[in-house]
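User: For my dataset I need records formatted as: sequence, then structure tokens, nothing else. Please produce one.
Assistant:
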Amino acid sequence: MLFVLQCLTKQDTHIICSILTAPILIVLYLIVGRSSNKQPTILFENESTAVTGRNQYWRGQDVKMNQDADESKEVDSTSASIHHKTSEKKEDTKSSSPSGAKLTLAEIANSTLSASSRPFNYIGDINPTKPLPWPSSEKDWHKLHETLVQRVKESDELPTREFDINNSRLPQLIFYGDSITEGWGGTSFGNLPSKGRMWNEHEDLEIRKIFDTNFGKSSTWGERALKPSLILGISGSRTYDFIWRIMNGEFPSSSLLDHNVKGDDDYDTFDLGKLERIYIVLMGTNNLGGGMLPAPTLEGMDAVGRSILQLHQDNFPGVPAAMLFSELLPRRDDFRAEKMCPPRCANVTSKTPYKSFMPAINKVNKELPRIMEGWRDDFVNSRIVLLSGSTNSTSTDEEEEEEEEDGEDSPTKITIDTAISRYKHNNYTQTVHCGREMFTNMDDIEEYDTYMPDRLHPNAKGYELWSHCIKKGLEVVMDHQISLEEEVVEEEESR
């Protein structure tokens, strides 16, 4: 090295200096150059953990809108995959106006962001009752499914909390569904939702807090539950892939209480003291959103309820089952209904699109009570509650007609005891009429938008409102042996 320095400082042009100095200088350059060009690890971490946003399968066939000509075209699977990656990088910059304000619904409907996140994928010819997972190429969906399977396994391995069985314990809550159910955890496909969801900053944290306060560890229910609640929702789920999910690991298999096994005849009545879990289910709107008609959508929802009840009966013979099954929530994302045409059009010849999802939703919801009566008949050791957006009394039309014939001035609400006594095997289906707590009967669209800003998914205010409906259903399942609205009443009185 000293010789090299001498050669350099003396500017010696001797051939020996040239021969010996050159290789040494090259080595020094490589060492220093690599060291100075090394990238911080955080850049690669950010790249590898970037939020993936909407899944390609959920989006269906990618559509890129030609805004100048107001046209759209389908792209092949290769370009769709490329566009999927690039559109998510553009999403943050295109989900806000130049002034920084959120896009309006009209702007979302006509923007490239909107087109890349909600193209139409027709599923009308798929069997809504046959278990079918998403394609293996849809890694986000399968990764989240594996996460939920692991969540169920961990719950099964967790010891049951010990309480006075007669007074203190409450069943474990299992929340099943699609994006609205997954939203209880503040996520979509396991990540923060895209800005098209129109949530405020940190709203995901607020929603998680609402869940914890109402159903989690900090809630009246959570403090007394045999095990913590499980949120098992995946965005975009339809009836057929949901059935596949619960048949492939997303169904708890651990018994929570010790039961003396007897003959089947001893277990043909519902016994609240043996109840271990309550399934809270919301499923079906994505069938309609994929162009499926109300009748097959209803078939799929029927299969969902029956699959859960059958799995419960197979895994826990003699243990009563309880379910809160929700009507489809109202959705007013009319721009998505219009994008279904073609092929799903109000008039195929003239290519006249549907203007709203609500007629189809109303048809499905109207038939749900009949479907659920079939569940009660076939799964006698069960208690099934329908969460409805209507505001009618809990008596049925037939009961109201009987009361009118008896000369009563007005129909009265049927009591829980009366409902139980009317049905064989001490089982019953009961409807809880939640009204605006299920985002119905709101005065105007502006009020609706305060709870569902993208007109499909609740925000924090929407989840808080919906939680009251769910708690009413839980009280009915438990024969009003627990009041879940006490804390809310106390808070309102203290204001």
